[in-house]
Prior knowledge:
Helix content: 25-40%
Low-confidence stretches: none
Distance between the termini: 84 Å
Number of strands: 43
Structural class: alpha+beta
CATH topology of the largest domain: BirA Bifunctional Protein, domain 2
CATH architecture of the largest domain: 2-Layer Sandwich
Number of domains: 6
CATH superfamily of the largest domain: Bira Bifunctional Protein, Domain 2
Largest sheet: 7 strands, mixed
Shape: elongated
Strand order of the largest sheet: 29-32-33-39-38-37-36
CATH class of the largest domain: Alpha Beta
Amino acid sequence: MKISLxxxxxYVDVGNDYQLLKDKFNLMSxxxxxxxxxxxxxxxxxxxxxxxxxxxxxxxxxxxxVDTGGEVFQIICGAPNxxxxxxxxxxxxxxxxxxxxxxxxxxxxxxxxxxxxxxxxELGVKEFDASEDGxxxxxxxxxxxxxPLTYLHLDDYVLDLDLxxxxxxxxxxxxxxxxxxxxxxKALVTKKHDYTYSNVDNKIKVFTETSKCLAYYxxxxxxxxxxxSPYWLKARxxxxxxxxINNVVDITNYVMIEYGQPLHAFDYKKLNSNRILVRRAKxxxxxxxxxxxxxxxxxxxxxxxxxxKPIALAGVMGGFETEVDESTTKILLESxxxxxxxxxxxxxxxxxxxxxxxxxxxxxxxxxVKKAMDFATELFVELAGGQxxxxxxxFDNTNKKPHEVELTLEKLSLVTGKDFDLSEVENVLERLxxxxxxxxxxxxxxxxxxxxxxxxxxxxxxxIVRIYGYNLIPVTIPETPTPGYLTKKQKLRRVIxxxxxxxxxxxxxTYSLVSQEQAVEFDIEGLSEVKILNPINKSRNTLRHSxxxxxxxxxxxxxxxxxxxxxxxxxGKRYTNETxxxxxxxxxxxxxxxxxxxxxxxxxxxxxxxxxxxxxxNKLNISDYKILESKNSIPSLHPGIYADVFLENExxxxxxxxxxxxxxxxxxxxxxxxELNLDIIxxxxxxxxxxxxxxxxxxxxxxxxxxIAKDVPVSELVKEVKIAGKKTLKEVEIFDLYQGENIDQDKxxxxxxxxxxxxxxxxxxxxxxxxxxxxxxxxxxxxNAKLR
Length: 788
């Protein structure tokens, strides 16, 4: 919201210390995005053109003499519309124009020029008059020697507020004035409006068939003259960030900024009806809006009709067919109250965001609906020569009464941590212009309709504290005891993050909202989807079931920027209608590690990622896991390079390679991913350190080549070896796998290295043989294995 400080001064005496005002807003109201002069220019003066002669050396240049109210300067001008006796804007020698453009004495084609005759574009306000073609010609009443910015009402400062959704009252000049008056503790001047009705019946009748329009006022005004708005009106619109168009449109915009109540003017002759009906749109109904776009309407949309066909989209945009143009002489002025949710949904669906819709969707003040129309009618009479045709037609079912909020002094002190006095609270409420009744320590406060964001006692406390001063609230330590340690889940997250970061992975943080296709892309079973009712866009409309699609987006983003090697992980949640599940997901792509000196490099593959997952589980002291060939089907994963991870018999997650079609679509190759259920890991891990003595006695290593059935998982073989080896067997490593000559086709040979060690003595050969024979016998009984 851009605030003209000249305009604000009509309500409150803010003085000239604009930095103080900015600081007050930052501390007590809304953040100030910027404070700036409307036109950043120095040494400008109103001049009168005395003579115009063609430049002898240039056909398109004019040599002029200009009276600046004390001195006459020779200035060369190239504008096609320069003429004698014009009142113009002159930038003198030493003037600085927007863009830090400095005016210097110059010679142009051998003739001296002492200054510049300016256009609006050179002042940075071209939109002040769209018809300008060359230098800007001032009115005949402009006094030579005076400041042209003052004459044009452009000598203004603008305070640009970065508003939050909870302060719709600041979307109007009057609302800002109330807040300013309160913060500065200065008097507020409110405005009243009046005009004279012509003694003619108003033929317009207004009706509604929907409860989504609580109020509608229609006023006929005739004998309208379409022309440019006066300088003061155009200057204030420009300061507010709105482009002036003509006096009719400008008046409706001006009143909207003044009171926060959007208005609309219809060309009455184009209505072909004296009946205004507000209703829901009908199925397959369309409306051509002011932007000349044909809009397909839905039955939830609210439309203004001439009794039969739509002429405007309620609260969003008017219709093209009833637009005010240069031939308009009679208008129907509309001021209404529309349901905020309906306006918001329609505006969002049609991607039509306007100054009107942004106010209606936040809720306008029901007490400003008629006041805004009265003010606009007054301006139409004054600035457009209009005559009011009888009394307005209307219906109004809005609640104009303030609602009451109760707050005790004890509650205020308990929430804020400060013991307020009754007088301190009374002072703030009076500055806020909130009427109240006091019973003991209980305040019964009437919240005016202009402050629809104040609903309960919490909002009232916030209002009191911000005006009293956040900096005056004492800083205290919370009385609630807080434990000074991490929970088990927090420790787990920290260990996982540290471990993966230490082995070369980078952590990501991505959106939980993805497209519907991404949300279910890596589902093994049909999980319920959580969709957003009002999504930002279609690519963020569903809560995800897997983090992997988000990691793939990160991969694509970085690869497009020539980063071809990456290992990523993320801790995040899966969302369904029933529950939330925390996941650990990872991705490996390209080269994982390299040694330039030795000319070696290790690229991502399935077994490397499998080793990362196994190492992580071992780090968490989880040993009873299994990684088995998957029997599930995920279309985005390669069916032959895809394994499931189990913890005992509970499904933990998966490891796999992206399907070639998926890789082709992403423009990548050899991309490997994993995803584990962190909640299951959290219930099984053990991070407690157990100290053991360093063994005093040497270890013994024996190698075995075991022939087993081809379909027996090697993990099952290792498990049975450990069972048979008992305490003496410290470690089992696989160092070879063989299938081929001298091995049956349905068999495979697995080479194992067994490390045996005793904590009590040095093992003798016969003792080692006993353990090895026990292992071989056990494998024969359980897996039908034999020694090769």
